[in-house]
Write a structure and sequence with these properties.
- This protein is mostly helical.
- It is built from ten helices and no strands.
- The chain has helices spanning 12-39, 41-58, 75-104, 110-147, 166-183, 186-195, 201-206, 208-222, 227-265, 275-278.
- The chain is flat and about 90 Å long.
- Residues 1-6 have low confidence and may be disordered.
């Protein structure tokens, strides 16, 4: 059969050795990517600060105001380490995903491998779309919201200026990127669950109102306590939930079409040639 698992059953020790090799390749790729990103940590941080400069322009403030501070001697060093780890994980993800696929592929049927590969490609693409949405739109909007609270001072008012710490700014933008990146995985996860028979489009649609509440609760937990970022995460989540329902329907239609084709090609499913009529 063409759909059979090609590899022969292996003992547990062989699987553990295979897992060790795959982990070594994945960790090695991450370590190399981490060193590269750490070497360019300052340019990468300046790249991440660009949305802050856009927010300053939107707020009509002097461009020289784009400045961040660190209050502990080691703070910016550890911030650069975080940048290296974050960038290293992004750069090494194709290798990590490839090693994961190579480990599980021998245990899959051919049709399962062909179905798994598109999701392996779609997952990082959707994550990058979520990260781009954060970088080009939501981070500037959030920073503009915070900048709007400043006071210029004078006439009995204190001068209140926003001077973010480098670690806190990096934590903010990384939190937003991870939150949006994970939310954008919703269609992929739902489609996989639908293929496995663990979720249906009807069941997802019936839980729509609970999903809307959960979207706002998750946005309140994952984002800073401001309405811009919370609404900004909740609305895409609800839209992606509707897309997930549509993807589940497509899977169900494909399954029904494949079942109908299989029944039409199966001679056993055809009625008898009329043996009862002969009696």
């Amino acid at each position: 059969m063409t759909d059979d698992i090609e590899d022969q059953p292996q003992p547990l020790l062989a699987h553990l050795m295979e897992l060790r090799n795959r982990l070594m390749w994945a960790i090695g790729a991450f370590f190399i990517a981490f060193l590269i990103c750490f070497a360019f940590a300052k340019p990468l941080f300046n790249f991440l600060v660009e949305p802050f400069s856009w927010a300053v322009e939107w707020a009509g403030l002097d461009s020289r105001k784009v400045e961040l501070i660190y209050t502990a001697p080691q703070e910016f060093f550890f911030t650069q380490i975080k940048i290296g780890m974050f960038g290293g994980l992004v750069l090494a993800f194709p290798m990590i995903a490839a090693q994961l696929y190579k480990f599980v592929a021998p245990g899959l049927y051919k049709n399962e491998r062909s179905a798994f590969l598109p999701f392996l490609v779609a997952s990082p693409v959707l994550f990058l779309l979520g990260a781009a949405l954060v970088y080009f739109f939501f981070t500037p909007m959030v920073m503009w919201f915070f900048l709007s609270m400043e006071q210029t001072g004078g006439d009995g008012e204190a001068s209140i200026m926003l001077l973010p710490k480098v670690s806190e700014y990096l934590g903010l933008i990384m939190t937003l990127i991870f939150a949006f990146g994970l939310v954008f995985q919703l269609p992929v996860v739902t489609t996989l669950l639908a293929r496995a028979g663990l979720a249906t489009s009807e069941g997802l649609a019936s839980k729509r109102k609970y999903a809307i509440v959960a979207a706002f609760v998750a946005a309140a937990v994952l984002t800073p306590p401001d309405p811009v970022s919370q609404i900004g995460l909740a609305l895409p989540t609800i839209i992606l939930y509707e897309i997930a329902i549509y993807c589940a329907r497509l899977v169900e239609r494909q399954r029904a079409a494949a079942k109908a084709e299989a029944e039409s090609d199966d001679p056993a499913s055809e009625p008898a040639s009329g043996s009862e009529e002969d009696h």
